[in-house]
Amino acid sequence: MRELVFNVIQEEDGGYCASAVGEGIFTQGDTWEELEAMVLDATKGYFYDSEPPENVRLHLVHETVLKVA
Fold first, then answer.
1. pLDDT of residue 56
2. Which residues pair with 4 in a beta bridge?
3. What is the Cα–Cα distance from 41 to 44, expressed in whole angstroms?
4. CB–CB of 10/16 below 8 Å?
5. Residue at 35 is within a domain
6. Residue 33 falls inside a structural domain
7. How confident is the model at residue 57 (pLDDT cuts 50, 70, 90)?
């Protein structure tokens, strides 16, 4: 696997949650820097007995709900 993508959402409290696309990896962090460290740690742990991806991409998902009426 060349690249693993995590979808990241920012929680109402300001923290972040990340889930890997196509893999069973989920983690969270209070800051973006903490999230980065947690994602790397979780990825290394998940692939402890197999070849890890070369890169990890964090995709910040921003959702906006617009009121029409």
1. 97
2. 56
3. 5
4. yes
5. yes
6. yes
7. very high
Give dist(CA 43, CA 24) in Å, integer. 10
Question: What pLDDT is attached to residue 64?
Answer: 82
User: Does the pLDDT at position 58 exceed 90?
Assistant: yes
pTM, two decimal places: 0.87
- Measure CA 24 to chain center: 11
User: Which is it for strands 16-20 and 26-29: parallel, antiparallel or unpaired?
Assistant: antiparallel
Domain count, the chain: 1
Give the 3-state secondary structure percentages of the chain, helix then strand then coil, rounded to 5. Answer: 20, 35, 45
Give the structural domain span for 34: 3-60
The amino acid sitting at 55 is N
* Alpha carbon distance 6, 17 (integer Å): 9
Neighbour tally for 35: CB within 10 Å? 22
Residue 69 to residue 66: CA distance in whole angstroms: 9
